[in-house]
Design goal:
This protein is mostly helical and 216 residues long. The chain has eight helices and no strands. Helices cover 46% and strands 0% of the residues. Helix 4 (126-140) packs across helix 8. The N and C termini lie far apart (45 Å).
């Protein structure tokens, strides 16, 4: 499947992001995000276990570890890559645990760590650089990220949110970087990074947060 590249340039610019109209999401994409919502709704623990086995990149998602009632959700996830399904689950958790807002979580003592490779991992690998880039964008524009993750797939609101994030998409690139990012990667990357950033904040793992898992 061919995907539109955003065209992140070494100079920190962002080309080919804006389109005349929002592209309608494929039935498969809609089914995938519904599968993510279904898995989280049916069995949150199973969703967390599944996250631990899913690859961070576009390798095929292995779904054999999913057990219990959440298995009924798998039809919509058929053929998903690791990043696809991780993003769908992350968005569902973000909307469930934080209700799409930046205030205190609904369930502060039961947040999920995505354990993304943004700090200890050596730079250079594309996967690592993608997650570091996404973490930079969502932490610099959490409101814009929220607008993206709460917008319907393929909607004008989604496109407007993407356009609103464009400046940080460019400025968060490492100096001299020529990182290629595909449009279909943005939402799953930002969903994971948004949730992980809030997880670190509310569990006191983000420098200067001063929060703990029991914070009100």
């Amino acid at each position: 499947m061919k995907h539109r590249m955003l065209g992140l340039a070494a100079f920190g610019g962002l080309a080919a992001l804006a389109t005349p109209a929002a592209a309608a999401p494929s039935q498969w994409t809609v089914a995938l995000y519904e599968a993510g919502r279904c898995i989280v709704q049916q069995d949150r623990g199973a969703a967390q276990t599944l996250l631990q086995t899913l690859p961070l990149d576009d390798a095929a998602a292995e779904l054999d570890s999913l057990r219990g009632p959440a298995r009924q959700c798998l039809e919509g996830a058929a053929g998903a890559t690791g990043i696809d399904l991780r993003g769908a689950i992350a968005q569902a958790l973000y909307l469930r645990d934080f209700r799409g807002r930046e205030l205190r979580p609904v369930r502060a003592g039961n947040l999920v760590s995505f354990d993304l490779p943004i700090q200890a991992s050596p730079p250079g690998a594309r996967t690592v650089e993608l997650y570091r880039w996404a973490d930079c964008v969502v932490r610099n524009d959490s409101q814009g990220t929220r607008l993206l993750l709460t917008s319907p797939l393929g909607s004008p609101d989604e496109q407007a949110a993407m356009n609103g994030l464009a400046n940080f998409m460019g400025s968060c690139l490492p100096q001299g970087s020529d990182l290629n990012v595909y449009a279909n990667e943005v939402r799953p990357l930002f969903a994971q990074s948004a949730y992980f950033s809030l997880y670190r904040y509310w569990t006191g793992r983000l420098a200067g947060s001063g929060r703990s898992a029991s914070a009100d």
